[in-house]
Amino acid sequence: MPQNPPTLNHGNREMGHKMDGKPTLLKDLLAGNDLSQLVVRAREAGELASQVRGLLPEELSAHVTGAVLHEETVVILADSAAWASRIRFQAPALVAQLAPRFDGAVAHVRVKVRPG
């Protein structure tokens, strides 16, 4: 006996479909709280990465692949271990420059490797 593939259900409707069975439009999904928060956080992360790049020397900024604020720490993503090490040397200056922009909420900078 063939089995039906599993479906993701949300209440009485399948994920991505309205109650009438029609597909949900992307604009409607983006208007929901979960996805709209994701979009906001992605935009904020992009803006923070741009700020970090602007504070670093040009040779270093080209190797920043992203940045996020997590609690009191700005996590900077670099494209290699060698560049991450060089960016770490800038951490004290970055904290001093970023803290006022975030009302003192930045106390640490951490650099991780994430190839671009």
Which characteristics define this entry?
5 strands; 116 residues; alpha+beta; disordered N terminus; GMP Synthetase, Chain A, domain 3; two-stranded antiparallel ribbon; three-stranded mixed β-sheet; 20% strand
Task: Please provide a written account of the structure.
The chain has helices at residues 26-31, 33-55, 58-61, 81-88, 91-101, and strands at 9-10, 13-14, 64-70, 73-78, 108-113. It has 116 residues and is an alpha+beta fold. The protein has one domain (13-113): GMP Synthetase, Chain A, domain 3. The strands form two sheets. The protein has a three-stranded mixed sheet with strand order 3-4-5. It has a two-stranded antiparallel sheet with strand order 1-2. The longest helix is centred in the middle third of the chain and has 23 residues, at 33-55. The protein is elongated. Mean pLDDT is 82; it is low at 1-17.
Euclidean distance between termini CA atoms: 47 Å
User: Strand arrangement, largest sheet?
Assistant: 3-4-5
Helix and strand run: EEHHHEEHHE
CATH architecture: 2-Layer Sandwich
Percent of residues in β-strands: 15-25%
Gist of the model:
The protein has 116 residues and is an alpha+beta fold. The protein is 45% helix and 20% strand.
List the topology elements.
Elements: E1 9-10, E2 13-14, H1 26-31, H2 33-55, H3 58-61, E3 64-70, E4 73-78, H4 81-88, H5 91-101, E5 108-113
Parallel strand pairs: 4-5
Antiparallel strand pairs: 1-2, 3-4
